[in-house]
Specification:
By secondary structure, this protein is an alpha/beta fold. Helix content is about 25%, strand content about 15%. Bound molecules: 1-deoxynojirimycin (NOJ).
Length: about 550
C-alpha cells in the first residue's frame, strides 16, 4: 500500500501566466488576471496551481531566464498582486506551486553582471567560465536551443556555458555559495507561504568535471553533451542537501523536471526513503512520436509503444516512487491535436485522453486550456511565432538548406507556441484574453472552442474534467490502486485495471477513429459492475464481456472482486 499524502491525492493545474488572462490591456497575461479566474479554477475542482515563472525577467525565454528571483516581472504586476493572489488561493483551499529555475539565471541577473566583469570578481565562480580551446569553444556541446552551448565574452577573453539560450548562463552548482543562494531564495518564497516547487531541468545541475566533449554525429558541428550533464555525478548529493536544508522543513510538494530520466533514476529521485523530491516529470512518452535525433523529426505514434512505456513507468515506480501524469504543458503541443483528433471527434477524443490519464496511478497535471480541448495552431508565417527554440531551429535549418515549408510542418506538429496561444475564454475579440493586442495571436478557432461555451454544459469537455476530478475525491482506488495493463497487443485499445483491496477499476479507451472491439480476458473475474464515467451515452448494465467501442470511446467501471 502506498503512503498517503495530500500531493498524491491532488490534481494540479498549470498556468502559463503570459497567456492566461490580461487585465490591463497590454496584451500580456498578468497576476490580477489569474486572481480574477480563481473561481473558474475552483469550479473545475483543481487543488494546486503551478505557475510558470513570474519573476523579473528580460523574457528571452518567457520568464525561464530570471534576472531577480525575489521580484515579480513588471508585465505581470507587483509583489502586492502576488500576495493577493496567494491569499485568494488559500481562501479557496487551493495551493500554489512556484517554478524554480536554478540550472541557469538570466545574463541580466546581478550575479552574472558581476561575474563577467573580471576573473577575480567574487561572483566569477557563480557561473561556468572556461578559456577557449585552439581558438574555439571549450568543448563541442550543443545548446538545447541550437548552436554552441558556449558564448565568448570579450571582457575577460573566456567563454561561459549556456545549455539553453545565450541569455541563460548555467549556474555553477559546484560552488557552495551558489547552492546557499538557491536555498535562501527558496526559503524566501516558502516563508511567504507557497506550497511547493516545480524545478526546471533540475537534473542538469551537476556537470561531469572536465566537461568532456560529446560524441559528434556525422555532418554535425556540435554534439549532445547530455551524457555529461543529465543526472550528473553530484545530483543526488545536491538534492539531498537541498532537502535537508530547505524542503524537509515545510509540508510542500516538489516535482523535478527531468529530461532523459530513467525509471531507476526516478526511483532514486522520488523514493520515500531518499529525501529528495516527491515526483519527476519524465519525457519518454513525449519522445515516442519523434525520430531518433530530434523532436522536429515527426513520426506517427504507435499505441503499442505508448502502452509499453506507460506500463514500464506505472509498474516501475509502484510502491517505491510516484508518477506525475501529463500529456501536454507549455513546451509540448496540445494533446488532442497530437495524440487524438482535433477534427470530427474533437470532444470525444479530448475526453478519452483525459480519462486515460486521470485513471493512471500518479498526480495528474492539467495544462491551461486542456480542460476545454484547446488545439494546436498553424500560423501562415514564421514571423507570427515567438518561441526562441522554434525561431533558432528555423534559422539553423534554413541556413542548412531545408525547405521552409517542410520546417513549418514540424513547427505545426511540435512547436512550443502551440501551447502558448492565449487562453480562450469566450467568443469576443481575442477570445476575451485581452482588450489590447495579444503578444502571440489567438488561435482562430476560439469562436467554437472557449470556456464560456463549455462551463455549465453537461456534455462539454470542461464538465467531463470536473467529473474526473470529483471521482478522484470519491474513490481512493483512483489514487492508490495498483495498475495492470490488459490486452498488451491490441493495436487501438488501451485498457488497464487498478486494484485496491476488494475493488477494481476497469479503464477502457479507444485510441482510434475506428470502432474497436474490446473483449474481456478469459481469466478476468469480478462480482458486480458500476459505470463510473463514459464519454458516450451508454447503459451501465450492459455486459462488459464484449464492448463495441465507438471512435475514441472511453469507459471506466468500478467492479467488486
Ligand atoms: C524547461 C522549461 O519548461 C522550458 O520552457 C525552458 O525553455 C527550459 N527549461 C529552460 O529553462
Amino acid at each position: 500500500m502506498e503512503n498517503k499524502t495530500w500531493w498524491k491525492e491532488s490534481v494540479v493545474y498549470q498556468i502559463y501566466p503570459r497567456s492566461f488572462k490580461d487585465t490591463n490591456g497590454d496584451g500580456i497575461g498578468d497576476l490580477k488576471g489569474i486572481t480574477e479566474k480563481l473561481d473558474y479554477l475552483k469550479d473545475l475542482g483543481v487543488d494546486v496551481i503551478w505557475l510558470s515563472p513570474v519573476y523579473e525577467s528580460p523574457n528571452d525565454d518567457n520568464g525561464y531566464d530570471i534576472s531577480n528571483y525575489r521580484e515579480i516581472m513588471k508585465e505581470f504586476g507587483t509583489m502586492a498582486d502576488w500576495d493577493e493572489l496567494l491569499s485568494h488561493m488559500h481562501d479557496r483551499g487551493m495551493k500554489l506551486m512556484m517554478d524554480l529555475v536554478v540550472n541557469h539565471s538570466s545574463d541580466e541577473h546581478e550575479w552574472f553582471q558581476q561575474s563577467r566583469k573580471s576573473k577575480d570578481n567574487p561572483y566569477r565562480d557563480y557561473y561556468i567560465w572556461r578559456p577557449g580551446k585552439d581558438g574555439k569553444e571549450p568543448n563541442n556541446w550543443e545548446s538545447v536551443f541550437s548552436g554552441s552551448a558556449w558564448k565568448y565574452d570579450e571582457q575577460t577573453d573566456e567563454y561561459f556555458l549556456h545549455l539553453f539560450s545565450k541569455k541563460q548562463p548555467d549556474l555553477n552548482w559546484e560552488n557552495p555559495q551558489v547552492r546557499q543562494e538557491v536555498y535562501d531564495l527558496m526559503t524566501f518564497w516558502l516563508k511567504k507561504g507557497i506550497d511547493g516547487f516545480r524545478m526546471d531541468v533540475i537534473n542538469f545541475i551537476s556537470k561531469v568535471p572536465g566537461l568532456p566533449d560529446g560524441e559528434l554525429q556525422e555532418g554535425k558541428k556540435y554534439a549532445s553533451g547530455a551524457p555529461y550533464y543529465m543526472n550528473g555525478p553530484r545530483i543526488h548529493e545536491f538534492l539531498q542537501e537541498m532537502n535537508q536544508q530547505v524542503l524537509s522543513k515545510y509540508d510542500i510538494m516538489t516535482v523535478g523536471e527531468m529530461p532523459g530520466v530513467t525509471v531507476d533514476e526516478a526511483k532514486a529521485y522520488t523514493g520515500a526513503d531518499r529525501n529528495e523530491l516527491n515526483m519527476v516529470f519524465q519525457f519518454e512518452h513525449m519522445d515516442l512520436d519523434s525520430g531518433p535525433t530530434e523532436k522536429w523529426d515527426v513520426r506517427p505514434l504507435n499505441l503499442l509503444d505508448l502502452k509499453q512505456n506507460i506500463t514500464k513507468w506505472q509498474k516501475g515506480l509502484e510502491g517505491s516512487g510516484w508518477n506525475s501524469l501529463y500529456l501536454n504543458n507549455h513546451d509540448q503541443p496540445r494533446m488532442v491535436s497530437r495524440f487524438a483528433d482535433d477534427g470530427e471527434y474533437w470532444a470525444e477524443s479530448a475526453k478519452m485522453l483525459g480519462t486515460f490519464l486521470h485513471m493512471l496511478q500518479g498526480t495528474p497535471y492539467i495544462y491551461q486550456g486542456e480542460e476545454i480541448g484547446m488545439t494546436n495552431v498553424q500560423f501562415d508565417s514564421i514571423d507570427d511565432y515567438k518561441d526562441i527554440e522554434t525561431l533558432n531551429m528555423y534559422k539553423e535549418k534554413v541556413e542548412a538548406g531545408v525547405e521552409p515549408e517542410q520546417i513549418m510542418q514540424s513547427i505545426y506538429a511540435k512547436g512550443r507556441d502551440n501551447a502558448r496561444t492565449p487562453m480562450q475564454w469566450d467568443d469576443s475579440e481575442n477570445a476575451g484574453f485581452t482588450t489590447g493586442t495579444p503578444w502571440l495571436s489567438v488561435n482562430p478557432n476560439y469562436h467554437e472552442i472557449n470556456a464560456a461555451k463549455q462551463v455549465g454544459d453537461p456534455n462539454s469537455i470542461f464538465t467531463y474534467y470536473q467529473q474526473l476530478i470529483k471521482l478522484r475525491k470519491q474513490h481512493e482506488i483512483m489514487v492508490y490502486g495498483t495498475y495492470d495493463l490488459l490486452l498488451p497487443e491490441h493495436p487501438t485499445i488501451y485498457a488497464y485495471t487498478r486494484i485496491l483491496d476488494n475493488e477494481k477499476l476497469l479503464v477502457v479507451t479507444n485510441f482510434s477513429k475506428e470502432t474497436s472491439l474490446f473483449e474481456l480476458p478469459k481469466d478476468f473475474s469480478y462480482k458486480t459492475q458500476e459505470l463510473l464515467i463514459s464519454n458516450y451515452q451508454v447503459d451501465g448494465n450492459e455486459s462488459i464481456e464484449k464492448i463495441e467501442l465507438k471512435p475514441y470511446e472511453a469507459r471506466v467501471y468500478r467492479l467488486t472482486i
